[in-house]
Amino acid sequence: MAEIFVVFRLDTVYKPFLFIFQPLFAMVAPSPFHIVLVEPEIPPNTGSIARLCGATNSTLHLIHPLGFATDDRHLKRAGLDYWHQVKIEHWPDLESFLRSRREEELFFFTTKVPRPYTSARFPPQAALIFGCETRGLPEDILRLYEERCYTLPMANPHIRSLNLAMTAGIVLYEALRQHLPGHPGKGETVPVPGRASGTASTASPP
User: Which of 106, 136, 186, 189 could cross-link 131 (Cys pair, CB 3.0–4.6 Å)?
Assistant: First the structure.
């Protein structure tokens, strides 16, 4: 029986796979983003977000007072055995954190504004700030940073909000997507027709 040899160039086969997986390789690099939880109340939400931060090399900032002890078993269970992979910073209050950042790095998320999160362009070192599950962000903060507030649109008006951990994950991965190789307009804010451009946020209940 005659033997048949198939010869191919390695670079011809490799390049299509590189094109497909390059964005995934980019995600392994350190994330330039920060997730900020203001007085979180539900341990599994914070644990899940900590795991999210560990998976994306993002920094988790916890604004006190917390609604639980940091050794809570539900918190630990949600984060599984990844806690040593998570960079966490604690702050005594929100004002202390805000004073440490430039205003253009601040992005607040709330259900109380119409501006969608997809209209934001997240610069490196952007801080994605979420309020507690039952109260959201303080009203005075929303007024002060009105042009830096965004929301996650929902089609059903009977649903008040999304889960906090889900909201954080959606927003963080959008920010990461914007910094994949070849993505246009990094760090720019896309104006919403009829409204001033800015940044907003969504506080999510359990």
Answer: 136
Residues 6+ apart with CB under 8 A from 68: 40, 41, 42, 43, 46, 74, 75
Structural domain for 62, as ranges = 31-177
Domain CATH code at residue 36: 3.40.1280.10
Please write the tens of the pLDDT for every residue from 129-167. 999 999 999 999 999 999 999 999 999 999 999 999 999
* CA distances (Å), origin 61, targets 20, 79, 142, 169, 190: 33, 15, 19, 15, 27
* pLDDT for 109: 98
Q: What is the pLDDT of residue 50?
A: 93
Q: How far is CA 73 from the centre of its chain?
A: 24
